[in-house]
Amino acid sequence: MTSLTTYRALGRSGLLISPLTLGTMTFGTARWGAAEPDARAIFNAYVEAGGNSIDTADVYSGGTSEELVGRFVAEGHRRDELVLATKFGFSAQKGNPNAGGNGRKQIHRALEGSLRRLGTDYIDLYWLHVWDQVTPAEEVLQTLGDLVRAGKIRYFGLSDMPAWYATQLATLARAHAVPGPVSMQLEYSLLARTLETEYVPAARACGLGIMPWSPLAGGFLAGKYEPSTEGTQPAGGEGRLSGSNPFSGPFTKFTARNWQILAALREVAGQLDRPLAQVALAWTLTRPGITSTLIGASRPAQVPDNLAALEINFSPDQLAALNHASAPEAPEFFSAGLKQAVFGGVEVQGWG
């Protein structure tokens, strides 16, 4: 059984974090979020259980999430014991291109704002929130490396970017012996496993730890929704996927395939006598390359429920059932079968 205090190195670095990271996107968010009293209770429940990894971003609740996190850290005098992470990249001012993206001017602007809202003079882990498709990798690497050397950030990671881009930054950093990324943050769940083809091998080769976001697929894997008679759109359910949400349109979770995955999850959860959300979270922790999985909560009671995922031990048959049901639809080209064909049908194992 894994413990919240079984700390893990994030990638090839000396930064040690809990296997579950508290995501604070819900802090101060209307509709499905947590107002300050609940946010404080969520935060305290996590750190009092031994968790040390806190994740926020400058755009969460328009900066309110960072302000609340900073307040809670100061109240408990916990700055030195916590790994505080925030992000930059999304626009802070409509019509101003230099108030968004990954350029040097924007990074410095965003960091100063985050430091002020968090009430700290350094960030432990600074995430590039999203690849802007414009700024050269060399500029991003130099800017973030300079901030490491200046002591304003300790480490940095990359979120929502192509695998080749992460590899480019990591390779440039290694070639020039300068600070490089230590982690990736990507959507990963039973419903979203496409990163296994390129990202997981890239992360392993470059020494990057992977931190999944949305491991419950916006609440879909928590069992909040039921399929309609057509088997696609939900017949009911209230949560992040209700109404306008980032997973609508082509990114919808309500597909026939996903309902089948949910059915397999229900079967395994029933065998374990555990809530679906716990089982879905526990599954991510069994996957290669995963250092710490993001958990979120809108109510304090959800924190111990999520942390209980660390207690789950799957049988080989249960893991096989989940892996089979959720296997990516596109087959892996670089397969074991291809390797055998390359080596004349002989079993060959590489180093590592």
UniProtKB/TrEMBL annotation:
UniProt keyword Transferase present: no
Keywords tagged on the record: Oxidoreductase
Listed CDD domains: AKR_AKR9A_9B
Keyword Cell division (UniProt): no
Record InterPro entries: AKR_Detox_Biosynth (IPR050523), NAD(P)_OxRdtase_dom_sf (IPR036812), NADP_OxRdtase_dom (IPR023210)
Chain segments annotated as transmembrane: none
Residue ranges of every copy of the NADP-dependent oxidoreductase domain listed in the record: 19-324
Name of the protein this chain belongs to: Aldo/keto reductase
Biological source species: Hymenobacter terrestris
Taxonomic lineage: Bacteria, Pseudomonadati, Bacteroidota, Cytophagia, Cytophagales
